[in-house]
Amino acid sequence: MALYTAWAHLDRELTLLSAHVRNFAAAKPSLDSASHFSLLDECLLEGLLSHVWQAWNGFCRECIIDSCVGTVDANGVTIPGLAPAASEAHVSSAAIRAKKQSAPPYWGQVNTVLRSEPTWGDVDVLTKIITRLRPVNGSKMLPAFSSAHANAKALQVIRNGAAHTNVQTLGEINAMRSSFLVFPMLHPTHAMFWIEPGSSDFLITHAIDELISAGLNAIS
Which DSSP helix (H) or strand (E) runs through 39? Predict the structure, then answer.
């Protein structure tokens, strides 16, 4: 798949999800207290957050795999594939190894168990994979994905907290408080509506905008 097609899909999906979040917020008198969220609200927000995180992960996966097997960037420039990258399954296996070990060999095997793959949306993991597998367009992808680090990490931390709510995951969310204008949360999804001070936007919608922008830079 050409990289622009992958980004266009990300843009459509995240823009739609952002609209759902804004519609949710617009229907509320205010969202500056945990008491303003019902159980049904939290269930809805968990689903929206999961879809955002899955969309970002899917885009990052396509970028890495397509770049390794060969593709075309947003400007129509051909990106030649890497010689060892015979298929998606070969890249999948190489990415698993690249995450775990700092030195080759990375190539040769194939992976058929998708749950064994790395968390593609984790920018720290992406950095390891790009640096170690060295796709031709890696010098463009690295700074673009790095620019999304703070926002991708915030979404990852909140999403993990929603999926595995405990004292430690709530503590990880609260550790981000200094970066936002906050109110005390009782459920991880409440943090989606902390305010990003630079944009005065919700954490979640600001992060979505930044991921769309970083994605476009990564494939340009």
Answer: helix 39-69
Residue in 159, 158, 160 with CA at minimum distance from that of residue 182: 158
Determine how many CB atoms are found less than 10 A away from the CB of residue 173. 22
The reported pLDDT for the residue numbered 24 is 98
In terms of C-beta distances under 8 Å and separation of at least 24 residues, what long-range contacts does 94-99 make, across chains too? 94/68, 94/133, 95/64, 95/129, 95/133, 98/128, 98/129, 98/132, 98/133, 99/125, 99/128, 99/129
One-character DSSP codes across 80-116 = PPPTT--SHHHHHHHHHHHHH-SSS---S-----GGG
Q: CA 180, CA 198: separation in Å to the nearest integer?
A: 9
Measured in degrees and rounded to the nearest 5, phi and psi for residue 132 equal -90, -35
Report if pTM > 0.85: yes
pLDDT value of residue 1: 62
Contacts of 74 (CB under 8 A, 6+ apart): 3, 4, 7, 216, 219, 220
Tell me the mean pLDDT per 10 residues along the chain, length 220. Answer: 93 98 97 97 98 98 98 96 96 98 95 97 98 98 98 98 97 98 97 98 98 98
